[in-house]
Design brief:
This protein is an alpha+beta fold and about 150 residues long. The chain has one domain (about 30-145). Helices cover about 20% and strands about 25% of the residues. The protein contains four helices and nine strands; from the N terminus they run E-E-H-H-E-E-E-E-E-E-H-E-H. It has helices spanning about 50-60, 60-65, 115-125, 140-145, and strands at about 35-40, 45-50, 75-80, 85-90, 95, 100-105, 105, 110, 130. A four-stranded antiparallel beta sheet has the order 2-1-3-4. Strands 8-5-9 form a three-stranded antiparallel beta sheet, covered by helices on one side. Strand 1 and strand 2 form a beta hairpin. The relative contact order is 0.17. Pfam families: NosL.
C-alpha cells in the first residue's frame, strides 16, 4: 500500500521549520522535536507531523489531508524513534500503543527502532501492544484518540 524505503545507512529527512504545521491537527511541529514524523515526496516537498499518530491519519486518508498528493509520489516516511530521538524509517519501526507515555496529541504510537526496544518499552511503560507499519489502521488510531487500547 505504501512505498517501502530503499535507503541504506543514515535516514535523512528535512527538519520542520518554525512555521511548519501538522496538516492533520494544525500544531507547530518544530515545538515537538522528540515526536516529529515526516513524509518526503519525490519532488522534495515534505509534510511534517507532531507524532506518528497524525502521520498515519494522513497516510490512511490522503484525499482529506493531502488532496494534491498521492502515495505513489512518496519517497520516504520517517518517525522519531523514542529512545535515540533520531529519525528512522517508519516502515521498519515497531510501535507501542497503550503506554503511559503521552505525545503532543495525547495517546500515541511510540516508535522504537528494534523489537527488543519495543518489548522493553512495552514492559517499562505499561503498553498494551506492539504493532508494525502495515498493522496500523484508522480504527486503531481513533481508539487511541478515545483512550481505548487492545
Amino acid at each position: 500500500m505504501f512505498p517501502v524505503s530503499a535507503l541504506s545507512g543514515s535516514f535523512d529527512l528535512p527538519a520542520p521549520g518554525p512555521k511548519d504545521t501538522c496538516p492533520v491537527c494544525g500544531m507547530f511541529v518544530s515545538k515537538y522535536p522528540d515526536w516529529v514524523g515526516t513524509v518526503l515526496y519525490k519532488d522534495g516537498h515534505a509534510h511534517h507531523f507532531d507524532g506518528a499518530k497524525d502521520l498515519f491519519k494522513y497516510l490512511l486518508d490522503m484525499p482529506t489531508w493531502a488532496p494534491n498528493h498521492s502515495v505513489e509520489n512518496i519517497e520516504r516516511i520517517g518517525v522519531t524513534e523514542y529512545y535515540g530521538v533520531t529519525l528512522t524509517d517508519a516502515h521498519e519501526a515497531y510501535y507501542v500503543i497503550g503506554s503511559d507515555v503521552l505525545g503532543p496529541m495525547g495517546h500515541e504510537l511510540i516508535p522504537l527502532r528494534t523489537k527488543e526496544d519495543a518489548e522493553e518499552f512495552l514492559a517499562d511503560h505499561k503498553g498494551t501492544k506492539i504493532v508494525r507499519f502495515k498493522q496500523v489502521t484508522m480504527e486503531l488510531l481513533l481508539k487511541l484518540d478515545d483512550g481505548v487500547f487492545e
